[in-house]
Amino acid sequence: MSRPPILSVRNLRTSFFAQRGEVQAVRGVSFDVAPGEILGIVGESGSGKSITCMSILRLLKSTGRIVDGQAIFDGQDLMELDENAMADLRGNDIGMIFQDPMTSLNPTLSVGEQVVETIIRHRRISRAEARKRAIELFELVRIPSAAQRLKSFPHEFSGGMRQRVMIAMALSCDPKLLIADEPTTALDVTIQRQILLLLKQLQNRLGMAVILITHDLGVIAEVTDRIVVMYGGMVMEQGSVTELFAHPRHPYTQGLLRSVPDLRDGEHTRLTPIAGTPPDMIQPPPGCPFAPRCVHAMKQCDIAIPPLYPMAEASDQTARCWLHHAQAPRVAGVNAPTAEVA
Amino acid sequence: MNPEPIIAPSMWEKPDRSTTAGEAIATPSLTYWQDVRQRLWANKPAVISIGFIVVLILAAIFGPLISPFSYFEQNLRLSNIPPVFETYRVSDDTGNNTRFFLNASNFNLYQVSEGGQVEGLLRGGRKDILKKRQGFEFGNTDIVLDYSSRPARLLRADGTTLRPEGWQWNMTYVFGTDQLGRDVLVRQLYGARISLLVAFVATLVNFFIGIFYGGIAGYIGGKTDAVMMRIVEIISTIPLMLYVILLMVVLNSGLISIVVAIGSVFWVDMARMVRGQILTLKQQDYVAAARTMGAGTGRILTRHLLPNSIGPILVTLTMLIPSAIFIESFMSFIGLGVTPPMASWGTLTSEAVETMRAYPHQLFFPAAAISLTMFAFNFLGDGLRDALDPRMRR
Amino acid sequence: MAGYVLQRLGQMLLTLLAIATLTFFLMHAIPGGPFVSERMLAPEIATALNDKFGLNDPIWLQYLNYLRGILTFDLGPSFRYPGVTVNEMIADGLPVTLRTGVLAVICVVALGVPMGIVAALNRNKWPDTAVMMLATIGVAIPSYVIATILLYVFALRLGWVPTFGLDDWRGYILPVFALSGFWISFVARLARSSLLETFEQDYMTTARAKGLRPGQVLFKHGLRNSLIPVVTVLGPVVANLITGSFVIEQIFALPGIGRHFVLSITNRDYTAIMGITIFYAALLMVMILIVDLLYVWLDPRIKLRKTAQ
């Protein structure tokens, strides 16, 4: 990365304090987002990917607490800001889109009002000007007859249209960073593509950085530049999309890729699910969180968490796996980038 | 790059996965009702409430049988006696001790035994109405009751004031007596009997009508449902209390009338709830699944619909009982409830309001009884709802 | 909107008709009731009743006469007091009942909702515990018990307020509080749980993610949505304040409609019972209509559902 990152998350730890004990949802996550890039965060549910992003914006529910770490945005550590400064930043410098557009919009306020209030909050302009801006935004996200639709209520929209409203709202103050938390999961498959392409186009046009959280590898492959793979509250592997898809260097990433249907492979390939269930985050395993489900697991994996090993072959790729230790036995597919995936 | 730690070669071997499956189930799985019971027992207010209700029911059933007094037996000479009093002691020349207390509101002296038993009214001389004095003789000792100024005083012959010797619990009438000299405790227990009886019977009637009406509306659905629910809507537009009052006016006061009146009106909530339950449950996927697998109407009704609506029904029932108690006491309070000498908490309270200024104890006991009972049923209902709520289930 | 109101008014009339019919036939069933011509009554009352209802006419004609009376706001003569009409009784008591009733509704909203908000914002801290304890007491203890206790403590023992009458503003304190106590508690509990549920909603997170200030998030996004269930119970609140007033007016000796009603019941003043019941029902339905309109205004989703039907 040549340019300095716009957001730099360092060793983020977030826990939820439930009656049964401390749930360690995020355990030391670090990654960078470069200006103008789309970073994808992948992982199954419970991997900590959403919590990571909610922690960056400090939007955790009451039982959640950021235990440690930094999130440097534009030279400031977001964790150090006071609540007022943080509120000034939310929706203004960092926009956010949520998973379910059905529940993320307030049902009792018109969609226009919900966009306008965001603009008025962060810009010193009149209500009339804000309305004008809202209409522009609705046109930008291609909501037909934008001016009239401003008065409508969320329940009068379809799911896809609601998500467009959410996007318009998130973009209303020209944020430098947009965080999209599974923006297409709750939508119909045909609508999913439309929304994704819209996001991609808007990103191209407006030049902001985007963090796209998803569990859908197809989505990732289509729009992102770089990927962070999360599991058990940790980053397992990260790298550029092309490298990571071509040469996944972590058994978990490999497992993920194998569990996705690929139409190009023809009809005879079998999908291989990853056996087992994600770890209990109240008592996470002392070693690699993926070890209990890993086909290559070794004794070492059960006692210590591996560091992120940089890959010699790819400049920007790192993988958290003991197999990359200098003394570790070599496994085809994991260690050798050119080998066939077993 | 950080320096690579040196790791023993044995660590690169495959781990032994035979013992730890990694998927050990931490808690033993419980059936739904075991789970409910466990949660209910963990809820302290609910448990205490259950205890209170059981004790109350037992006391209501057996209390009047054990008591030496009956709820209708009057003793006007011993009316309005408080549950606690300050006793005085006077000795005459023969060494006889007389222990007695002064009822500060009706200016009577009552003799009390050493054990705190009320033995009777003390006869004094003529009341001097003008000077507001009355003389009492204890052998050769004279005592004058002076009630010309409040509080009333007892004066010795030499003009000094007689001092009370201390507080004494009323051991004969533990809760005191009412204005007709009836034992408050036994009337209290008898009132509990009537109030609880009305509440339980009325709730049961409501329960059956409600289940029947709501069940039919919900199960048949369509036009029948629409018409039946419109009727319920009309009934519930005006306060149900008005219907009860109208019915009581027509039926005349009495125990049976009030049960009929409450029972015939308050089923609408139950009907609505049952219908709603049946309607939502009918649309549940598991019912559809059962139907797809060939289960008949009877099986669906008994295996799927009823067990799943029993929770809300139970909660509604628990909540109906206190409102029935409340309505009965309310009706009795405005003079439309049970007729004297029968007592319910409502009539006891309304009788006590008349004498509230002088004898607050008569108000205290029925008010406390009804409040505590309402508390108990409310807590129990809340506890049940929390215990049954499947959303709280892990 | 106009169509909806018209439809509701039609429904109201229908309901009123049902109530009037029920009342009429119930009263007709009473031996010695108002619709029997042979009784021992003051001649003046007997004549008035006969003039009004035509007691020797067939029953359906009496029924129609009675309905016509209701439609022309003429509820007939009293069954007990010569020369007094039910209309006069209502007119006599209405100001007192309305004043205490409106004050009670204001108390319910002005105390209950803020109590709920304070409790929800301080969940599981002492203000929450305190509010919930008060609310539990208020919900469990019947209004007439609260009324008598208040009367005993504040009027008889402490002498801070008069024991009866409404000669000055202090006379209103106890009746209004006794009347609204239950509903203040109920609304506080409801507002609390409703707010807590609203806090968990996704759109609250959205509002925060947009950078809205905490006050905006709470009042604009949270409160409006959580007030919807509170508004739905306001209809029943009005209804229950009215029935509550029977006893409260009795205990505090307030000359309101409720006292007239209870007196009519003890006197078996059948025409007054009938008339006041109908008046209550009509009053209530107007109140419920108002609450429903408020509800539609608060929750735009309702409109769609109504027009779709």
TrEMBL record, chain A:
Question: Which residue ranges does the record assign to the ABC transporter domain?
Answer: 7-257
What are the UniProt keywords, alphabetically? ATP-binding, Cell membrane, Membrane, Nucleotide-binding, Transport
Which Pfam families does the protein's record reference? ABC_tran (PF00005), oligo_HPY (PF08352)
Question: Superkingdom, according to UniProt?
Answer: Bacteria
Q: Name one GO molecular function term.
A: ATP binding
Major localization listed first in the record, in broad terms: membrane
Give membrane topology per the record. Peripheral membrane protein
InterPro entries in UniProt: AAA+_ATPase, ABC_Ni/Peptide_Import, ABC_transporter-like_ATP-bd, ABC_transporter-like_CS, Oligopep_ABC_C, P-loop_NTPase
Q: Return the Gene3D superfamilies for the record.
A: P-loop containing nucleotide triphosphate hydrolases
Protein location: Cell inner membrane
Regarding protein family, the annotation reads: Belongs to the ABC transporter superfamily.
| NCBIfam families xrefs | oligo_HPY
Identify this protein by name.
ABC transporter ATP-binding protein
From TrEMBL, chain B:
Q: What subcellular compartments does it reside in?
A: Cell membrane
**Any Pfam family matching the protein:** BPD_transp_1
Q: Any transmembrane segments, and where?
A: 46-67, 196-220, 240-268, 313-338, 363-384
Q: How does it sit in the membrane?
A: Multi-pass membrane protein
Ranges where the ABC transmembrane type-1 domain occurs: 192-381
Sorted UniProt keywords: Cell membrane, Membrane, Peptide transport, Protein transport, Transmembrane, Transmembrane helix, Transport
Cell membrane in keyword set? yes
Q: Which family does it belong to?
A: Belongs to the binding-protein-dependent transport system permease family.
In which organism is this protein found?
Devosia algicola
| The protein's name in its UniProt record | ABC transporter permease
- Point out the coiled-coil segments of this chain: none
TrEMBL record, chain C:
The principal localisation class reads membrane
Name of a matching Pfam family: BPD_transp_1
Q: Which UniProt keywords apply?
A: Cell membrane, Membrane, Transmembrane, Transmembrane helix, Transport
Question: Where is it localised?
Answer: Cell membrane
Membrane spanning stretches: 12-30, 102-121, 133-160, 172-191, 227-252, 272-298
* The organism's place on the tree of life at top rank: Bacteria
What InterPro entries would the database entry show?
Answer: BPD_transp_1_N, MetI-like, MetI-like_sf
Checking Gene3D superfamilies in the record gives: MetI-like
CDD domains listed in its UniProt record? TM_PBP2 (cd06261)
Question: ABC transmembrane type-1 domain: from which residue to which, for each copy?
Answer: 94-295
Bilayer disposition of the protein: Multi-pass membrane protein
Record-stated family: Belongs to the binding-protein-dependent transport system permease family.
Please identify the protein, giving its name as recorded.
ABC transporter permease
Q: Which organism is it from?
A: Devosia algicola
